[in-house]
Amino acid sequence: MELIVIVLLVVLIPSSLLLIVSAMQAKSGTLKMNNFLGIRTVETMRSEETWTVAHKACAPTLMAAGVIGLLLAAGMVWSAFTKPEWMYYFTGAYVVVVSGGVILAGQQAKKAVKEMDTRA
């Protein structure tokens, strides 16, 4: 059980916090194009402008995925000590919420870039 808690504290909670911080930067326009963080597709990495437009569009979804992921990770830690049988539910929900949030954010970013291209 201790190993599970260590994995949660070292991997899932920081991952959720990273989503939250990157969403805040994306929303403010301070998330610069890079090779590690953000929605990195051909469309979004075409220029700094497309990167910024795309990330501003998907920031709310990334924020929601990060916040809900953080709550679910905290729920996993709680259940590890109180209701171990609930770990599976929290883990499944975490995977669905965070993965789904990132996939949805990618679709929103793509749509924002496409709309930007049609206006130009």
TrEMBL record:
Keywords: Membrane, Transmembrane, Transmembrane helix. The chain crosses the membrane at residues 6-24, 62-81, 87-106. Pfam families: SdpI. It comes from the Bacteria. This is SdpI/YhfL protein family protein. The lineage of its organism: Bacteria, Bacillati, Actinomycetota, Actinomycetes, Mycobacteriales.
